[in-house]
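Handout for the seminar on molecular recognition.
Each group receives one record of this type.
Step one: identify the two inputs.
Step two: read the structure output and locate the region that could contact flavin mononucleotide.
Step three: write two sentences on what you found, then compare them with the reference statements printed after the record.
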Amino acid sequence: MLLYSAPLQGITTWVYRTVHSRLFGGADRYFTPFFSPTKEHLFTPRELRELQPEHNAGLPVVPQIMARNPADFLWAAEALAAMGYEEVNLNLGCPSGTVSAKGKGAGFLARPEELERFFETVFSAAPPVRISVKTRLGIRDPEEFPRLLELYESYDVSELIIHPRLQRDGYGDPVRPEAFAAAYRCCRLPLCYNGDLARPEDFTALEARFPTLPAAMAGRGLAADPALFRKLRGGGAAGRRELQTYTQTLYRAYCESYGSAGPAAQRMKEQWAYLIRRFAGGERYAGKMRRIDRPGDYETLEARIFGELPLAEEAGAPENRTGAGTQG
Ligand SMILES: Cc1cc2nc3c(=O)[nH]c(=O)nc-3n(C[C@H](O)[C@H](O)[C@H](O)COP(=O)(O)O)c2cc1C
């Protein structure tokens, strides 16, 4: 089963991908956080930093696009093909109210006729890249999914990543594995499962239930345990020293990329929202980490966490699961 790194806005940046792949062996694919092309058809400097080929050299990166207008999507797909990318991913999963109100992300799922016209225009333009889709089940009711599935199957979608929650489920309500199982039984597209895979046992159970599933994707679980995929490939868990090397390398790489420590510390805080779960008693520091705003305070708190807290497994506690309702 291929192991994919899920897009997490603010966390799985090009800096993260570079450091994570170097220290932990990497993912079979890294999906970038979405970017939303505007009608001017220009990349912002921030988008370019994320996507420019030199920043992703040698890595299996799939840029993710969020769009409702087929012309904007096609412009982005062509520009990314010209940079050397072979696949782009369409975001049909973002549940945020502001995104959905614009009919994008999961919000597009409420408009199946328009979505069909979007696919018709995009695929009939013979785009120069493969197009994969990351989708939720629908907006309010899992019964919306069979129609969407039929729509995806009518086009040359290269891979369908299913996050089996509805838009109204956010990230905290339980996933709906039965809806995924129904798609697994009948869908002819290559499928990938995404949602709450946080421990090696979660992947083993997934593979036992869906033995021919080609791929699985983890987001928060991988952010909390950067060695997750290495463990699944038979390698070792990350000890404290290795985790500290990871956080310090990542922080330094962010400082270098931004040319200053302030924004680097902000990025690291978002990373720590998940990493803190690896530490027994980490909840005592989670709020402090969220409130930090100066790089010096970040560095002090990071040193305290590593100095004072045992890893959850050293303390005999089970590793934290992805957990409900604690994410953005
Ligand atoms: C902070 C955060 C940012 C996210 N950003 C994106 C994104 O840019 N594109 C996307 O398709 N999904 C995004 N997601 C959803 C994840 O990719 C993933 O589908 C979701 O977290 C469920 O998987 P997990 O339980 O393995 O984390 C985001 C989720 C979180 C919590």
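Reference statements: The beta strands are 2-5, 29-35, 61-65, 87-92, 130-135, 160-162, 191-194, 215-218. Residues 240-258 form the longest helix (19 residues).
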